[in-house]
Amino acid sequence: MNFAKRNKSIVDFLFILALFGAFAITALFVVLFGARIYRTTVSNMNTNYEKRTAMAYITEKIRSHDYTGGADVSDIDISSETDDHSVLKLYQEIGGKTYITYLFLADGYLREFTADESYDFNYKNGTDILAIRDFSVRKENEGLYRFDITDTNGENTIFFVTLYSGVDGDGDDD
């Protein structure tokens, strides 16, 4: 037998070409499926980030004002084109002066603004904290606040924050 001198035919070439084509198509499908999985993972991570960041930020802000008279909710007219929006007001006394920190929605962002209590609130002021679609806060009872946030993907998150100071077991002020 002469293994060194084998006649090559077109069938051998087509078999190798078909094998290479199958490998290329399989590799392409693996890359496409991987890209889709990656895109979904990134989207879920962004949604999780927005939810967790908003919840953690608001919770820490309200907990840092966990004393009698430290937090309140009011509706403020943000602009003439929109309805009233709920605003979380956090009070703090420094050097005999009372300062108010406002947490509110304006221009697609959760914003924070701190000023002396005599300052007239203006929604155009403030620092952008996080891009969100909607934000509302409601005082359920003394010491319990309900937050409703819609992120940029349209997913709604509802959570509650409880303040402990100034509230006894019946929900009445001490």
Rg value: 29 Å
| Overall average pLDDT | 84
Elements, N to C (H/E) = HEEEEEEEE
For the record, the count of structural domains works out to 1
- Name the shape in a single word: rod-shaped
What ranges have pLDDT less than 50 throughout 5 or more consecutive residues? Answer: 168-174
Question: Describe it for me?
Answer:
By secondary structure, the chain is of the alpha+beta class. It has 1 helix and 8 strands. The protein has one helix at about 10-65; strands spanning about 70-75, 85-95, 95-105, 110-115, 125-130, 135-140, 145-150, 155-160. The strands form 2 sheets. Strands 1-2-3-4-5 form a 5-stranded antiparallel β-sheet, with helices on one face. A 3-stranded antiparallel β-sheet has the order 6-7-8, with helices on one face. Strand 3 and strand 4 (about 110-115) form a beta hairpin. The longest helix has about 55 residues, at about 10-65. It is rod-shaped, with a radius of gyration of 29 Å. Residues about 170-174 have low confidence and may be disordered.
In short, what is this structure?
This protein is an alpha+beta fold and 174 residues long.
Topology:
Blueprint: H1 10-63, E1 71-77, E2 84-94, E3 97-106, E4 109-116, E5 127-131, E6 134-141, E7 144-150, E8 156-162
Antiparallel strand pairs: 1-2, 2-3, 3-4, 4-5, 6-7, 7-8
